Amino acid sequence: MANFHLPPQGFGPGSQGTGEELDFMPLPSGMRTYSPHVPETDGAAPQIVLDLLGAIAGACDLAAIDGHSRSFDLSILTAPQRALVADTLGHGEVAMKLRGIPAIAVQESVFAGVWVLAGEGVDRVEIAPHPTLALTRAHVPHRPALGANAFRGAQVVNAPALLAELQDKSRSHGADSPVHTINLSLLPHTEEDLVWLAEATGEGAVTILSRGYGNCRVTATAMPHVWRVQFYNSTDALILDTYEVSMIPEVVIAAPEDLSDSAARIREVAEAIR
Predict the structure, then answer these.
(1) For residue 194, what are the domain limits?
(2) Rounded to a whole number, what is the largest CA-CA distance in the chain?
């Protein structure tokens, strides 16, 4: 029998050996940042393009103050003028797919808060914290919300309680209500819970991808004000899975500071191609 005055074997510094190192999940990397781009032109840019850029910059200043949306029709431009505007605006972090008639593809430019909308008969730039249609079409059912009528298998355990919480917050949410988040990554659940909850909340008409520090995928549900927000790292592994009750998730909104910054950058580019 070992002497009880001696420390037990197999414990303490050095007792665990030098085996494999801990394997942590890779964090997001390669964050996208703004880099100035001056489009190539044969001589000075057309005055109509310079005027349009000036008007867009002015709209950014106004949107930073009042948050209101302002739009500019691009269909009046000739093909070379339209190509120059496209080259100037570029592609930013956020892209959206808006179902409906007509279906609209939205691409944020490299200038935050400057959105390019394209669809059947639609070719315009919208200046706003977020595109207006992304809010008005968001919860139009693409796949209806079945609620508690969704088929409930034996492995559905915690999802009904989460649905009740989402339904309550959805009904009571207003323009001034705080954001309410259910973090599925921190709650016990089964795979069947997630499938059931997806059927219960349905799917809306808006899907959003934000590519910044990793990827964020946002899907509107068919329940008012309820969004599925999922964050992925640079290897496309899911690192945060949430339901959010809000008017629109903050991750896709251009802040007033972003809009003011966009106004200054657009004026710099316009001056460079003048």
Answers:
(1) 147-252
(2) 95
Contact 243, 162 (CB under 8 A): yes
Which pTM does this prediction carry?
0.83
Residue 21 lies in a domain: no
Residues 189-226: b if buried by 16+ CB within 10 A, e if exposed: beeebebbbbbbbbbbbbbbebbebbbbebbbbbbebb
- Name the more confident of 160 and 41: 160
DSSP string for 169-183: HHHH--TTPPPEEEE
Computed over every residue of the chain, the mean pLDDT equals 89
pLDDT recorded at residue 212:
73
- What is the percentage of the chain residues whose pLDDT exceeds 90? 79
- Domains: count for the chain: 2
Is-contact 72 125, C-beta < 8 A?
Answer: yes
CATH number at residue 123: 3.30.1370.140
H helix runs in the chain, sequence order? 47-66, 79-89, 132-136, 159-172, 191-201, 256-272
Candidate from 5-19, 77-91, 213-227 with smallest mean pLDDT = 5-19
Mean pLDDT across the stretch 33-41? Answer: 64
Helix, strand, or coil (residue 273): coil
